[in-house]
C-alpha cells in the first residue's frame, strides 16, 4: 500500500454519495462533513493505521472542524491523544503558537492556533485532515509544528485532489503523505479517481 492507492470503501461511497460543485469542490456532507458515517470512519482509520505502521508517532494533530472526527477515531483506536488546532484564539489561552492559513473553500485567510501545552518539543505528530487540496492547511500545520519544536511524522488525508497540487508540495518536502482517495479531476463534474 502507498499514497497512490485508493481505499475502495471510500471510493465507492464517494461515487455513490459524493457531489461535485462548481470550482473543483467535492461535497461529502452525507458521510464525512455534516452527517458522519462512523463505520466508514473506523474502516478508514484502520487503513491509516496500516499505512503508517512503519512510522513512529505519539500524537494525532488535526485542524477544526472537519478533521476532528477522523482524528478522534484514529486516536481512539490507537489510544493516542488528539489535538486540534483552533481557528479562533480562545481568550483563556496564553501559552500559544499561531500561524495564518488561506482557505480555498472560503477564499480568505484565518489564524490558526495551538497551545504550547499540547504541542511540545519532541512530539512526533501524525496530521490527519478530511481534504488535501492546495495544501494551505497542511503548510500552516507544518509551521505550527516547527514553532513548537515538534516533528511531523506523516500526514494522512481522507481525500486528496491531486489537481490542486498540495500533495506534490508535501511529498517534495520529504513528508510521508497517505491519501485514502486521490481524485485526479472533477472536470465537467465527473469524478475521476486515480486507481
Ligand atoms: P487546502 O488547505 O489543502 O487547500 O484545503 C484543505 C481544506 O479545505 C480542508 O481542510 C477542507 O476543509 C477544505 N476543502 C478543500 N477542498 C475541499 C473540497 O473539495 N470539499 C470540501 N468539503 N472541503 C474542501
Topology of this protein?
Blueprint: H1 8-17, E1 19-21, E2 25-27, H2 29-33, H3 38-51, E3 59-63, H4 68-78, E4 82-85, E5 96-103, E6 108-115, E7 124-132, H5 136-148, E8 151-161, H6 166-172, E9 177-185, E10 192-193
Parallel strand pairs: 3-4, 3-7, 7-8, 8-9
Antiparallel strand pairs: 1-2, 5-6, 9-10
The structure holds guanosine-5'-monophosphate.
Guanosine-5'-monophosphate (5GP) binds next to strand 2, strand 7 and helix 5.
Written description of the protein model:
The structure is a single chain. The protein has helices at residues 8-17, 29-33, 38-51, 68-78, 136-148, 166-172; strands spanning 19-21, 25-27, 59-63, 82-85, 96-103, 108-115, 124-132, 151-161, 177-185, 192-193. Helix 3 (38-51) crosses helix 4 (68-78). It is globular, with a radius of gyration of 16 Å. With 195 residues, the chain is α/β, with parallel strands linked by helices. 31% of the residues lie in helices and 32% in strands. The chain has 6 helices and 10 strands. It has a 6-stranded mixed β-sheet. Strands 1-2 form a two-stranded antiparallel sheet. Strands 5-6 form a two-stranded antiparallel sheet. Strand 8, helix 6 and strand 9 (177-185) form a beta-alpha-beta unit. Residues 25-28, 33, 66, 104-105, 129-138, 161, 166 line the site of guanosine-5'-monophosphate (5GP).
